[in-house]
Design goal:
The chain has about 60 residues and is α+β, with helices and mostly antiparallel strands. It contains one helix and three strands; from the N terminus they run E-E-E-H. The chain has one helix spanning about 40-59, and strands at about 1-5, 15-25, 30-35.
Length: about 60
């Protein structure tokens, strides 16, 4: 399972972040934040991660 968030810039850094939280078979969570200065770059990464996750789920 994965949770994928696309978040707006925070007030301090004015950056966009994509948060991906993956769970292991044991149920451990592995959050990973990937930050971008450009909204388009962040959204492209978000779409890429979503597509990869969708393909993995179909297996």
């Amino acid at each position: 399972m994965a949770i994928i968030d696309f978040s707006h810039p925070n007030l301090i850094g004015k950056e966009w972040s994509v948060r991906v939280v993956k769970t292991t078979p044991k149920g451990d969570l592995f959050p990973q934040n990937v930050r971008f200065e450009d909204k388009d770059d962040a959204y492209a990464y978000y779409e890429q991660v979503r597509e990869l996750w969708r393909k993995q789920k179909q297996r």
